[in-house]
Structure formats: structure tokens, C-alpha cells
Amino acid sequence: MEEIQKRDIRKLSLEELEEFFLSVGDKKFRAKQVYEWLWNKSLKNFDEMTNISLATREMLKKHFEINHILVDLMQHSQDGTIKNAVKLYDNKIVESVLIPTSKRITACVSSQVGCSLDCNFCATARLKRMRNLNPDEIYDQVVAIKDEAETYFQRPLTNIVFMGMGEPLLNYNNVLSAIEKITAPEGLGMAPRRITLSTVGIPKMIKKLADDEVRFNLAISLHSAINETRSRLMPINDSSPLEDLAEALKYWYQKTKRKVTYEYVIWEGINDDERHARALAKFCKIIPSKVNIIQYNPIDEGEFRQAKQEAVDLYVRILEQNGIVAKVRKSRGQDIDAACGQLANKNEVADLIQ
């Protein structure tokens, strides 16, 4: 007897699941029951679907599998941050982070295994991009952190940021599909305004976001508003310079009327002077925006060093003089390499740089 080739059941839409149940002579409403177990309750196996008959569960096991993630290693920082090393169905590893503050608990999730953009200051850039994450793998990271928030802090997950490993806009369809599930009533039911997608700024994909009328927030990893400096930091700026990014952001605001957040690290000897601060203030006036100045988290003994406090104060003063909201963000989870720019499977990185 020929063995049935099992499919990942979470790749099926509700409509496709309904068609499957009808094709095997079962009731259409079974699909909705199973769909709720898979997404709203995030079950990892068919045996726990208690309102479905044993015969139906056995039939599902013959046809399908649930490629659920596994939190392979959990590290706890002194400041409360939790970093998860997440094992995927093919044994590849990504990382996600729970970031607690007094007012919120944020999930920082990955969208790719590795990254292809080669930003010189980022640990993830040292990993070659191996593949995109599937929507369910992104969703599962959020569920794991939601459970950890309730277990360790007795508080709900409040926010999600796509600031982990990978460039979300280079995994566009899967990221948007995951966000659709996260915000759907039959999923996690989170409000889109509590989700922020962070990107290096790929102009054509920013325009696509606007055309698709997304309702989540957009953050740009900027780090310099001077082309020469930004290209030194982020090679993608050579093919997508600030002028193209500015045009795409104008399109974004015209379509969505949503302001953008610029993420900005100040490095000693690179962008820590008045010229760079004034260039940023000018760029911020293209559309309504705010700036998060992020503390740099070293990944080695290389050229990148956190700027002195005087430089940070200079930036804040110039931005505020120009009517731009600027917040200085203290990094969390540095002691477990969970802070911004530090996410990478350390074993993979070690292999690559030896």
C-alpha cells in the first residue's frame, strides 16, 4: 500500500481545509474546528483536539503533520530579557527575544534564517541567508513569547517588532501572512497598531506596503542621512540611496498617513558629529517621523564603538530644536547577546569567522 505523502497542515487556508474535509466525506465545519486548534490555541499535535473524534484525528495524522517550532534554548538576562534559540522543523536555528519593561512586553521576532544584506555592524549579517521563515514559524515565535510573558511575568504580550534576524521585506508574502494570522480573531487577535516592521528601507517594497494598505507601523533602520556614510554602514544604500528611500517614504505617507520611526545608532568617529545630526534632522522633515536613538551593542573588537554621551546629547538637542521627537533607547539583554544587532546563532558565527 502506497504511503501518503504528508503535508504541513498549516500551509492550508481555511477554504482549502474545508475542501479537504469535503473530499474525504466529512463535514465542512470540521475545518473551522481544526483551524481554531491550529491557530487560536496553537496546538502542536492532533491528539489534543478534544472536540474532534478519534477516527478523524487518526485520519488527519495520516495526511498531515504540524511543523511546530521548538524553543531549543532559553536564556534569561539580569534585566528580565529572555532570548529563545528556536529550532525549526529542518533543524535550522533562529533567535527571538522577549523584552519586558514596566509598561509593555514586546516580542522581537526573526523573519529569515540569516540575512543577505551585509550590514557591517550587525551580527546576523555574518550568517549567510539560508531560507525564509514560513508564516507559521513566525507565528510560533510570537506564541512562545506570549506564553513566556504569562508564565514568567504574569502579564500579556503587548507589542511585536520584526527586528530579529533577517530583512522582513525580503520575505514579504510570508511576513504579511504571519501578521494577518497574528491580528485575526481566529489567531491571536492582536491590534495591528501594536506591530512594527523594521526594514533597512527597500524603496519598491515600502511602496508595496503602502499599496497593500497595511495597518501596522513602519520603522527604518537608517543610521545616517548622508549617502557616503550610510553606504559604508549598509551596502544596500549603494543600490537604494537616500533619495530613493525618501521618495518611497513620501509615497508611504501619502497612501497611509502614518508616520515612520527612524532607528539610529551613533558610532564614535563615524556619525557622531554635528553634520550628521543636522542631516538627520533634515531627513526627518520629509514626512512626519520620530527617532529612536539606539545604544550600540558591540559584536566584536572591530571598528564600531558606542559614541560618547556628548554626541548623543548633541543629536537630541538638534532634533528637538527642529521639532522632532527623539528618544534614547537603552539596550536590554546585552549580557545574553539578545540586544539590538547581536542576534545570531553563536555557533554559526564562530564557524564563519574562524
Automatic annotation (TrEMBL):
A Pfam family hit: RlmN_N
Keyword Protein transport: no
Cofactor binding remark: Binds 1 [4Fe-4S] cluster. The cluster is coordinated with 3 cysteines and an exchangeable S-adenosyl-L-methionine.
4Fe-4S keyword on record: yes
SMART domains assigned to the protein according to its UniProt record, in alphabetical order: Elp3 (SM00729)
Residues the record marks as active site: 95, 340
Cofactor(s) the record lists: [4Fe-4S] cluster
Chain positions recorded as S-adenosyl-L-methionine binding sites: 166-167, 198, 221-223, 297
Reaction equations catalysed: adenosine(37) in tRNA + 2 reduced [2Fe-2S]-[ferredoxin] + 2 S-adenosyl-L-methionine = 2-methyladenosine(37) in tRNA + 5'-deoxyadenosine + L-methionine + 2 oxidized [2Fe-2S]-[ferredoxin] + S-adenosyl-L-homocysteine; adenosine(2503) in 23S rRNA + 2 reduced [2Fe-2S]-[ferredoxin] + 2 S-adenosyl-L-methionine = 2-methyladenosine(2503) in 23S rRNA + 5'-deoxyadenosine + L-methionine + 2 oxidized [2Fe-2S]-[ferredoxin] + S-adenosyl-L-homocysteine
Annotated [4Fe-4S] cluster binding sites: 115, 119, 122
GO cellular component: cytoplasm
PANTHER family: 23S RRNA METHYLTRANSFERASE (PTHR30544), RADICAL SAM CORE DOMAIN-CONTAINING PROTEIN (PTHR30544:SF5)
UniProt record similarity statement: Belongs to the radical SAM superfamily. RlmN family.
Cited HAMAP family: RNA_methyltr_RlmN (MF_01849)
Note: Reaction proceeds by a ping-pong mechanism involving intermediate methylation of a conserved cysteine residue.
Name the UniProt record assigns to this protein: Probable dual-specificity RNA methyltransferase RlmN
Species lineage: Bacteria, Pseudomonadati, Bacteroidota, Cytophagia, Cytophagales
Gene it is expressed from: rlmN
